[in-house]
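Tetratricopeptide repeat-containing protein
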Amino acid sequence: MKGYNQEFIFDEESQEVVRRYEQAVQNRTVGYFDVEELEVIVDYYLNCGKPKESSKAIDLGMTLHPGSTVLQTKRAKVYLASGDARKALQILERIHTTNDAETELLKGEALLRLNHESEAHLVFSRLADNAHSDVPNLCLDIAHVYISNGFYKRALIYLEKGLAEDSADADLLQDAAFCYEQLDQAQTAIDYYNRIIDADAYSLEAWFNLGLVYFNQANYSQALEAFDYVTVIDEEDFGGWLQKGNTLFHLNRFEDSLECYRRCEEKVAYPDLLQVFMGECYEKLDEYNNAKTCYKRALEINDKNPDAWTGMGICSLELEAPEESIEYLHKALELDSENFETWVYLAEAYVNTNKIKEAERAYKKSLKLEQHQPDTWIALGNIYIDIALYQSALDCYLEAYNQDSSLENINLFLAIAYYKLSEYKKAIPLLEKALELNPEASTIFLDICPEAREIINKDKNH
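Structure:
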């Protein structure tokens, strides 16, 4: 964003001013700097995230130029950057200027941070209404204050006001689209990004953001088209390749997804996550050893990545090494004990090692974290069938049915539980429903309830 507090341009002249200032500090000498030079120094340190250094430069400035309202304004700006809105406001209210945009913008932001929303609105309204030139940029600045504080509807008022003056301003359109996204108005956001693209078909930022909106709406085909444009416009845009890879993954095009991820290797900020993404692709391709190789690389980069440990556990489970899987999954849960899916995988590993009590506890932990898991309720019910806790099994199957009545074999599981509880009048109709959907249902039923063979045969004869 190019707001009033983000417009710092560090050109050669500015570099020389900062170099001269730092040399004076290092030599413990007091050099002379005019107000404009001090503004450059203060803004430089603010943009570097060093408000304390900015404050030191202001202290020098106030010694050289006592009473400078420009430097007092900068002091308020530093307080705002440091999170002290109250001190910032106290300074700004002592400054007597007429319609100085930066002072008024800072005052409005300080009021907003102090939860004086109506007062902030009055400051901004007056500033916008009295503007005689560069209205779009002023509106953009006001909008940035609102956006940075989470007031998206308020921001849109000023963005639309700016667009009324210049309907093709890309910055205004970009920020308006962003606000509509935050307000869950995806289609309007899409319309605004398309307005930017209509004016400039090579706008990387617009294509990328458009792709993200489509992606978040699970419209992966449209998202892919947008990310295709990003990577065609700039083959070195690795963010575009990464998102294209993510999109292809959701389209079940795992080999194409891997190709995109490979282009990003050693180019992304979090390479361990990239290796996890690649591992997940290999998992989907049933190439579990290749997946494990990726997860191991991720852990070499960052051994605190729970997803990589979980991936190792899943692959070990698929490769019929459940004991090894349990070790990996425990490491994942040490890092993230709130991941309900990891608890499910751990339960499955325990089932495969015949540690039924441990499996039961893991399933229960998963369901405590996320109750809406019909398949997990079925799995827990199956455990209870195996250990002859038939009422508990029925309770689990009924919960699964209530969550998703179309679950495969749900009628069969219910029939088994009811039969084991001697509720034959409920069991038989459910078994008949199960047989309509799966002719093999009777075989499964008789494996678990062999004593029911006579009833099944009698039913077949009818």
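The two ends are 76 Å apart (CA to CA).
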